[in-house]
Q: What sequence folds into this?
C-alpha cells in the first residue's frame, strides 16, 4: 500500500532522512518511532507529497509520489502535527471547506460531514467556531478534515501529542476503528505504550536512519517490551 | 474565503475606512477651504478712531461700511487691539475736516496686529475704505474745478480670478483623492494577502491545504482571487461612497460640482483601481508567501506600503499637463495620475493605455514569483 524505497531527504547539506526503506501492507497500522528530530515528520511529509524526496521513490496505492502526486493526495488523509484550524470558522465549515478542496460532490458533502462528525462524537460541536473548541475537540476536527474524502491511507503525525488522557483515548480508539474499516495507517509517535497498543509493525528511526523494522509481536517476544527494544537500539547507535 | 470576512481587521480596511473617509474628504475639503476665510470677511470687526470727534462725517461713513463698526474704547489703542476688544484702530488728525476742506494733506495712521487674521482682515477693509474715500475726495475736488476725473486714470485695470472657489476646491480634491484611493486599495489588498499566505503558515493550515487533491497552482489562484475579490469589494465601497458624496455635493445648489464623476468616469476609475488591486494582490502574495511569520511579512510589507504612499503622492511634484510619458510607466504613480486626469475631466488615452499595460505586466511577473514560491518547498517550509 505504501512503499518507501531508498529514500533520502536533504535540506541543504543536512540529511534529515537517510536512505530508508519501509513497506506498509494494506490494513496495517505501521508505527514510526523516534526521538525529536529523528525524521518522522519529514518522512510523512514526503509520503504526503508536501516534500519531494531528494533520492529514492515512494508509491502509495501504486501511485508515484512524484509523477502522480495529485493521485497520491487523493489516496491519503494527512493529519499534520500542528492542528491548524481556521478559528473564525465553525467545525462544520472547516470540514466542508476541505471536503470541497478534495473534490467531494456538493450533494453528498453534508451527509459525509454528518457521518464523520458522528464517528468522532463531534456532533454537538459542529456549529461552534473552532477557536472556541477544546484542544481535544480541535484535534478531532483536524482528523475529520483530513479524512473527509475517505481515502484508503491515513497518515497521522503524533495525533495524541498535547492531549489529555480522555482525548488521547478517543483518538486511539478512532485509529483502531479505522483499521477495522480496512484503512492503512502510517502512524508516528513518541509513546511506546501507545505504539505497542495499536500498531502491527514499527520502524525505529534515528538521525534519519532506520535502526530496526519489525512486528510488535516479534519484538515483544524477543525483547520483552517495545521500550526495551527501542532504548537498546537507540543506545547502541549513540555509543 | 469566509474566514477573511470574519476578520475584523480586514473588514475595517475594506469597508469602514472607505465609507467614512471618502465623504469626510469630499465634504470636508471644500468646507474647510471656504469656511474660515469667508467667515472672517463676513463677520463684523470693531474698530476705534482716535480724534473721531474731529470729523463726524468720516466716522459716520466708515461706521457700517464693509461690516466695520466704530466703537469707543477706554484703553490705549494698542492694548485694545492686543486683547481683542477691537480688530484695528485709526488715528486721524484733530483738524481733519478743515484740512480736507482746505485741500491739505491728511496723515492717517492705522493700528493693527499683523499676527491676527481678524486684524488683517479689518486692516484691508480699512485700506479699501480709505482708498475709496480718497478717490471720492479727489473726484469732488476735480469736479469743483470742472475737470473730468477720468483724466487721472488713463488705464483701468480689472483683475479677474477665473477660478471659482469650487474649482479651487475641486482641484484640491483631485489632488488628494487619487492617492487616498490608491492607499486604501493597497492596505486592503496587503492585509488580505498576508492573511492568506503567512496567515496559513502561522495557523499551520498550509500543510493541510497542500495535501488536498487541489493542486498548488489552483490553490494560489484561489488565494489570489480571494485577495482580489476582497479588494474589489473595497473598491466597490469606495466608488459608492465617492459617487454618493459627490452626487450629494452637486445637489447642494450652492456648490458647483467640484469634480467630474459621471457613470463613465466612475467606470474608468473602477477599472484602473481594480487593475491596481491585481498588482497589489500579487505583490502582497509574493512578499508574504516568502515570509515565515506575520512579523516577518510586516517587515517586508511596511516598507512596501511606505513606497506606495510615496509613489501615490508623487503626483504632487508633477503637473499633469506636462509630465511626459515616463511617470505613466511607474506603478501606483501612474494610477494616481490617471485618476487625477479623470477627475478633472482631462483624460489622455495614451496615458491610460500605458498605465494599464505596465500594471498588467508587473502583475504577471509578481504572480509568477508568488506561484514559484508556492512550488518551492524550501521557501514554503523554511526552518
Ligand atoms: N524544512 C526544513 N528545512 C530544514 N531542516 C528541516 C526542515 N524540516 C525538518 N528539518 C530538520 O530535519 C530533522 C528531522 O525533522 P523532523 O521534523 O522530521 O523530526 P521528527 O522526527 O518529526 O521530530 P519531532 O518528534 O520533534 O516531531 C530535524 O533536525 C529538523 O531540524
Ligand atoms: Mg514531527
A:
Amino acid at each position: 500500500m505504501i512503499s518507501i524505497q531508498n529514500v533520502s531527504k536533504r535540506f541543504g547539506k543536512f540529511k534529515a532522512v537517510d536512505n530508508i526503506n519501509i513497506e506498509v501492507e494494506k490494513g496495517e497500522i505501521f508505527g514510526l518511532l523516534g526521538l525529536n528530530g529523528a525524521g518522522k515528520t519529514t518522512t510523512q511529509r514526503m509520503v504526503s507529497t508536501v516534500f519531494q524526496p531528494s533520492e529514492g521513490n515512494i508509491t502509495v496505492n501504486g501511485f508515484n509520489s512524484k509523477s502522480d502526486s495529485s493521485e497520491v493526495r487523493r489516496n491519503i488523509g494527512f493529519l499534520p502535527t500542528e492542528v491548524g484550524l481556521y478559528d473564525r470558522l465553525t467545525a462544520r465549515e472547516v470540514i466542508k471547506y476541505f471536503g470541497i478542496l478534495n473534490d467531494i460532490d456538493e450533494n453528498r458533502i453534508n451527509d459525509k460531514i454528518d457521518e464523520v462528525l458522528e464517528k468522532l462524537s463531534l456532533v454537538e460541536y459542529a456549529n461552534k467556531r473552532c477557536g472556541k473548541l477544546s484542544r481535544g475537540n480541535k484535534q478531532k476536527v483536524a482528523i475529520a478534515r483530513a479524512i473527509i474524502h475517505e481515502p484508503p491511507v491515513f497518515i497521522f503525525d503524533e495525533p495524541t501529542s498535547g492531549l489529555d488522557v480522555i482525548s488521547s483515548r478517543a483518538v486511539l480508539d478512532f485509529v483502531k476503528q479505522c483499521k477495522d474499516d480496512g484503512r492503512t495507517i502510517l502512524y508516528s509517535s513518541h509513546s511506546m505504550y501507545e505504539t505497542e497498543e495499536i500498531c502491527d509493525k514499527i520502524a525505529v528511526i534515528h538521525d534519519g536512519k532506520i535502526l530496526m523494522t519489525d512486528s510488535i509481536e516479534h519484538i515483544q517476544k524477543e525483547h520483552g517490551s517495545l521500550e526495551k527494544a527501542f532504548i537498546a537500539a537507540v543506545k547502541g547507535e549513540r555509543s | 474565503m469566509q474566514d477573511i470576512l470574519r476578520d475584523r481587521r480586514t473588514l475595517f480596511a475594506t469597508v469602514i475606512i472607505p465609507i467614512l473617509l471618502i465623504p469626510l474628504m469630499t465634504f470636508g475639503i471644500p468646507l474647510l477651504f471656504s469656511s474660515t476665510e469667508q467667515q472672517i470677511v463676513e463677520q463684523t470687526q470693531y474698530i476705534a478712531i482716535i480724534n473721531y470727534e474731529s470729523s463726524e462725517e468720516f466716522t459716520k461713513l466708515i461706521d457700517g461700511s464693509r461690516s466695520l463698526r466704530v466703537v469707543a474704547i477706554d484703553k490705549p489703542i494698542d492694548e485694545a487691539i492686543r486683547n481683542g476688544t477691537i480688530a484695528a484702530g485709526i488715528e486721524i488728525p484733530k483738524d481733519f475736516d478743515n484740512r480736507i476742506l482746505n485741500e491739505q494733506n491728511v496723515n492717517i495712521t492705522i493700528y493693527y496686529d499683523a499676527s491676527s487674521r481678524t486684524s488683517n482682515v479689518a486692516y484691508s477693509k480699512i485700506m479699501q475704505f480709505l482708498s475709496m474715500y480718497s478717490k471720492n475726495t479727489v473726484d469732488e475736488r476735480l469736479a469743483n474745478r470742472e475737470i473730468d476725473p477720468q483724466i487721472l486714470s488713463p488705464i483701468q485695470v480689472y483683475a479677474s480670478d477665473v477660478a471659482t472657489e469650487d474649482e479651487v476646491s475641486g482641484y484640491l480634491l483631485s489632488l488628494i483623492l487619487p492617492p487616498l484611493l490608491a492607499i486604501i486599495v493597497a492596505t486592503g489588498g496587503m492585509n488580505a494577502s498576508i492573511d492568506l499566505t503567512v496567515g496559513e503558515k502561522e495557523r499551520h493550515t498550509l500543510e493541510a491545504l497542500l495535501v488536498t487533491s487541489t493542486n498548488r497552482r489552483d490553490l494560489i489562484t484561489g488565494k489570489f482571487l480571494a485577495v482580489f475579490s476582497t479588494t474589489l469589494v473595497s473598491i466597490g465601497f469606495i466608488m459608492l461612497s465617492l459617487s454618493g458624496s459627490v452626487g450629494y455635493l452637486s445637489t447642494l445648489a450652492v456648490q458647483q460640482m467640484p469634480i467630474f464623476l459621471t457613470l463613465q468616469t466612475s467606470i474608468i476609475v473602477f477599472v484602473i483601481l481594480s487593475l491596481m488591486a491585481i498588482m497589489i494582490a500579487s505583490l502582497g502574495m509574493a512578499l508574504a508567501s516568502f515570509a515565515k511569520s506575520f512579523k516577518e511579512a510586516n517587515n517586508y510589507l511596511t516598507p512596501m506600503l511606505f513606497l506606495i504612499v510615496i509613489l501615490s503622492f508623487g503626483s504632487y511634484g508633477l503637473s499633469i499637463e506636462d509630465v511626459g510619458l515616463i511617470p505613466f510607466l511607474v506603478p501606483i504613480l501612474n494610477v494616481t495620475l490617471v485618476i487625477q486626469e479623470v477627475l478633472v475631466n482631462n483624460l489622455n488615452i495614451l496615458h491610460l493605455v500605458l498605465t494599464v499595460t505596465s500594471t498588467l505586466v508587473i502583475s504577471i511577473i509578481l504572480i509568477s514569483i508568488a506561484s514559484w514560491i508556492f512550488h518551492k518547498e524550501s521557501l514554503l517550509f523554511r526552518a
Remarks:
- Chain B touches chain A at residues 2-3, 6-7, 200, 203-215, 377-378, 381, 383 (CB under 8 Å).
- Residues A 40-41, 81, 157 surround magnesium ion (ligand 2) (CB under 6 Å).
- Residues 2-6 of chain B have pLDDT under 50 and may be disordered.
